[in-house]
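lol so apparently i was supposed to do this last week
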Amino acid sequence: MFLVAGARPNFMKIAPIYREAGRRDNISCRIVHTGQHYDYEMSQAFFKDLALPEPDYFLNAGSGTHAMQTARIMTSFEELCQKDLPDLVVVVGDVNSTLACSIVAKKLLIRVAHVEAGLRSFDMSMPEEINRIVTDSISDYFFVTEQSGVENLVKEGKPRDRIHFVGHVMIDNLFHQLGELEKNDGSVEFPTSRLKEKYSEYAFLTMHRPANVDSKECFTEIAGALNIIAQDRPIFFPVHPRTRKMIGEHGIELSDNIIQLPPLPFSESLYLWKDAAIVLTDSGGLQEETTALKVRCLTLRENTERPITLRVGSNVLAGTRKESILNAYEKCMKADPGSFSVPPKWDGKASARILDILVNSL
Ligand code: UD1
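anyway here it is w/ uridine-diphosphate-N-acetylglucosamine bound
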């Protein structure tokens, strides 16, 4: 089988599937990296950190408009599939690589398994929503992380026997990485270790969504709220390349108490956010990872395709206006993390469930 990854949020999802496949003799698993993300910090650093081997195939797609990027991935992936004819293509998440590779495989009559299927924000202005819907419209196996995903797929008419509520591979990886961090018992220093030691209380921020950072008006509103929050406690902020560019282009002013960092490897990022008083983010993955570790999360978006994170109490939708963010911040900080609960099947065993199902049915 081919295991496809292209962008940063894919790498932590393929890692546990790859590890699980390695424990079984009846599966041959090749990693295809489309090259959607290519900077060392956005790509190779993750492979190293997650102990993934070099990809078997690297397609070198790079950046561009959505059409250019998707087309480049499709062209190279088609060539690869025609040469190597896998019996199954596993795609994860909702990035352009997920969409591109699922379309190619399906047209070559290769079965497609979508890991993290069925999530819906019902917001078609998000490129990821389009990627999710199109990928699910042609997948053969749907591996679902939360009950809402099952309901969405059933409503869309997908056959029930193809929908498998297995939990979340990203949480498998999270627990694995947490174990690795604990093993190191302080003997490995991160570049940010001193920073963490210096502040007993801090917030952790990630932000990269085009809707938030490409629009000057929206970014300015969010920055206004962040600068006020930073008066309470410092905010550690690893900055995505897109966001770095937009801070410059829009001339966004951020308080000195918002400590800007380069994009961080998975383990260093986890090392910081797991002990944060609150995580502020527009990422999909962090909404879920904070939920799994019962850390307060404030989501800088109007909606979420991951509603279970709201229901269990850890995540609060803040919107993107200054006032709504500050209100959500107050609410979030009042919540007691001890009262949060963890969604069913987020237990570190999703990859094993997925491979059991695939092996039995192939
Ligand atoms: C992509 C995903 C998004 C995911 C995010 C995580 C899609 C549609 N979007 O968004 O769902 O949350 O990854 O990071 O697939 N760039 C670099 N170096 C890199 C990669 C990108 O500098 O290694 C810059 C380029 O200027 C590029 C821009 O970032 O044009 C955007 O990259 P792109 O992959 O198109 O989308 P992301 O915003 O990263």
